[in-house]
Amino acid sequence: MPLVLALDDASATLEEVGGKGASLARMAAAGLPVPPGFHITTAAYRRFVTENGLQEQILAAVSGISAVTVDRPAALEEASRQIGRLFENGVMPDAIAGAIRQAYAELGGGELPVAVRSSATAEDLPEMSFAGQQETYLNMRGEAMVLEAVKRCWASLWTARAIDYRARHGIAPQDVSLAVVVQQLVTAEAAGILFTANPLTGARDQVMINAAWGLGEAIVGGQVTPDTVIVDKANGTIIEQNISEKDVMTVMTGRTGEGTHEEPVPADQRTRAVLSPAQAAELARIGVQI
């Protein structure tokens, strides 16, 4: 298995690039508007763990945690801290670092801002939802920052929440692995979530869109109540629209900084609809393609 794959590699499998990565690969290969990037495969994660001698230490840290003992938050947090330190102190093998540097350079290199996104092999499965249990790091700039963010993504496979969820569902710790997706970061004026069926009613002839100003972190983190727009799939018309008061938005930290921060939404935008009818219709059209 290669250490790095192109984002639009149609052969990318769940085992190689995780659930999020496999979905993005299919969409990119189909020509949908997906920001360019690359996958760091599960082979890279396993090689890092093996060459740093971490597997036995990881399993030892979680050995006392099972479905009958998960209601011990202190034990979960301590296991997570122990494993986090292992990844923090681990050395990135030269072959992995070199493959990531090359892929980042081919994407644009320099100080190109990217999103570094976790993609677990036990993620986005029909019978279980692992959404939000691993980390994403936005506005990572330069090789050193990207390499460090990859290690932090790998470590996030072992957050207390993730350990707890897998234990409750009987997923053995030795059976999980993590890929990472690196994508060029879109400097978004607005962002959101699109559902290709209405999750409130189950109607499959409707698309539901949540949208807010700035990057999407404020929505997924619960800091802002987004607008909700329900669109008819057949003709792209808006069936229902609820405009929220959006007080805060996530924006990229400036060129000399990393990551993101929250700032107030300008007063004249707070109660304004994020999406025009034409934009909502275009998003619904793309959703139907998916």
Architecture overview:
The protein is globular. Helix 4 (73-89) runs antiparallel to helix 6 (143-155) and helix 4 packs across helix 7 (160-168). The two termini are 28 Å apart. The protein has two domains: 4-184, ATP-grasp fold, A domain (Dna Ligase, domain 1, 2-Layer Sandwich), CATH 3.30.1490.20; 190-289, D-amino Acid Aminotransferase, Chain A, domain 1 (2-Layer Sandwich). The chain has helices spanning 14-29, 42-51, 55-61, 73-89, 94-107, 143-155, 160-168, 217-220, 277-289; strands at residues 4-6, 37-40, 113-120, 136-141, 178-184, 190-195, 206-213, 227-232, 238-242, 248-252, 260-264. With 290 residues, the protein is of the alpha+beta class.
* β-strand number: 11
Task: Please report the number of helical segments.
Answer: 9
Q: Mind telling me which CATH architecture of the largest domain this is?
A: 2-Layer Sandwich
Residues in helix, %: 25-40%
What descriptive keywords fit this protein?
globular, 290 residues, 4-stranded antiparallel beta sheet, Dna Ligase, domain 1, 5-stranded antiparallel beta sheet, 11 strands, 9 helices, D-amino Acid Aminotransferase, Chain A, domain 1, alpha+beta, 2 domains
In short:
The protein is an alpha+beta fold and 290 residues long. The chain has helices at residues 14-29, 42-51, 55-61, 73-89, 94-107, 143-155, 160-168, 217-220, 277-289, and strands at residues 4-6, 37-40, 113-120, 136-141, 178-184, 190-195, 206-213, 227-232, 238-242, 248-252, 260-264. The protein folds into 2 domains: 4-184, 2-Layer Sandwich (Dna Ligase, domain 1), CATH 3.30.1490; 190-289, D-amino Acid Aminotransferase, Chain A, domain 1 (2-Layer Sandwich), CATH 3.30.470.20.
